[in-house]
Amino acid sequence: MILKTRTQEFWNGVRDEAPILLGVVPFGLVFGALAISAHLSTLAAQAMSSIIFAGASQIIAAQLVGTGTSGLVILMVVFVVNLRHALYSASVAPHVKDLKTGWKLLLAYLLTDEAYAVSIMHYDRDGDPRNRHWYFFGAGLTLWSSWQVSTAIGIFIGAQIPASWPLDFVLPLTFIALVVPAIKDRAGLAAALVAGLIGLLAVNFPYKTGLLAAALIGIVTGLVIEGRQK
Amino acid sequence: MNIWLIMIIAGLATFATRLSFILLLDRIRVPDWFRRGLCYVPVAVLSAIILPELTSPTGSLFLSWRNPQLLAGMVAILVAWRTKNVLLTIAVGMAALLAIKLVLGYF
Question: Mean pLDDT of successive 10-residue segments in chain A (230 residues)?
C-alpha cells in the first residue's frame, strides 16, 4: 500500500477542493454584501464567517438580524440549519478516531459540506490512510481561506457577479462528480435515489429540515436493501 | 440579544454539532447498524443536496425539458458515470448549462 507524505496529502486536498471554490466564492460575496445591507458592522460581518463558518446558516442569520428577529429564534434556526453536520461528524469519525484531540478539534471546525464531500470520498479510496487527515486539512483550509476572502470582498465592494452567470451550478456539479462514482451497488443507488427524491419533494421545508429528513430516510433505505441482499 | 453574543453561541453550537460524533464515537458503544449506516451518509446527503438544485433551481419544482439545470445535470451524471473524472464532469456540465440556456433563449 502506498503511503503518501503529509505534504502530498495536503496539496492533493487543496487541489481537489479548488474547483468547488468557483461555486463558493460567489456565495461568500453574497453573504458579505447581505450582512452589510442587514446593518451588521464590517467587523461583525467578517467575524461571522470565522465564528460560525457555515454559509447557508450565515445568510439566513444575517437576514433574520436585518428583520429584527429575536436572538433566541436566530440561535434555534442556525442550530437546525447546521444539524446535518452531525451526520458528517458521524461519517468521518471512524477515520479520525486515532488522531490527537487537537486534530479532532481542528478538523471538526473545518467540517463544512464542501470539505466533507471531497474528504470522505478520499477516505474511501484504496491506499494507506495514515496521512489522510492532512488531505482533509488541506481541503478544509482551502475552503476556509476562500470563504474569509470572499466575505471580505463582499463586504467592501458588494456582490458584483451578474446574476446571469450561473456559477452556483458548480456546487451540484462537483457533488455529482463525487457521488455518481461512489454508488457501487443497489443499496447505494437506492439510498441516493430515495434521498434525492425526498429532498426534492421536501425542498420547501423550512431551514433545511427537508435535507436532513431526506438524508436520514435515504440512509435507512440503503440499510434495508443491504439487509435484504444477504 | 447582542449580535456578538448571538454569533458566539451560534458558532459554539455549530462547532459542537460538527465535533459531536468525532469525539463521542470511540467513547460510546454504537450498534452495528449505526456503523453500517454511516457508509450511506455521503451518497444520501449529497444526493439530497443535488436533486433539488436540478429540479428546483429557483426554489419551486420545475420538471420540464425547458429546465436547463435539470438537462445539464443529467448530462453531468452521464459524464461522471462514464469517466469518473471530477474536472471533466464540472466542465462538461457547465458548458452544457450555458449551451442549453443559450438555445432556450435565457440570455
Answer: 89 96 90 91 96 93 89 91 94 95 97 96 90 97 98 87 78 92 94 95 86 94 90
Nearest to A146 by CA among A181, A170, A179: A170
Q: Which of A22, A24, A191, A15 is nearest to A91 (CA)?
A: A191
> Distance from A211 to chain B by nearest Cα, in Å?
6
- Residues contacting B16, CB < 8 A, separation 6+: none
A78 CB-near residues (< 8 Å, 6+ apart)? A52, A54, A57, A60, A61, B10, B13, B14
* Interface size between A and B, measured as CB pairs under 8 A: 258
Cα–Cα distance for residue pair A112/A89, rounded to 1 Å: 10
> Quick one: which of A218, A83, A113, A211 has its CA closest to B39?
A218
Cell of B72: 445539464
Contacts with B34 (C-beta within 8 Å, 6 or more apart), sequence order:
A90
A62 touches chain B (CB under 8 A): no
Q: How far apart are CA A168 and CA A149, in angstroms?
A: 17
Q: What is the C-alpha radius of gyration for chain A, rounded to an integer number of angstroms?
A: 19
The span from the CA of A29 to the CA of A156, in Å, is 9
pTM: 0.89
0.95 surpassed by complex ipTM = no
| Cβ separation A179–B61 shorter than 8 A | no
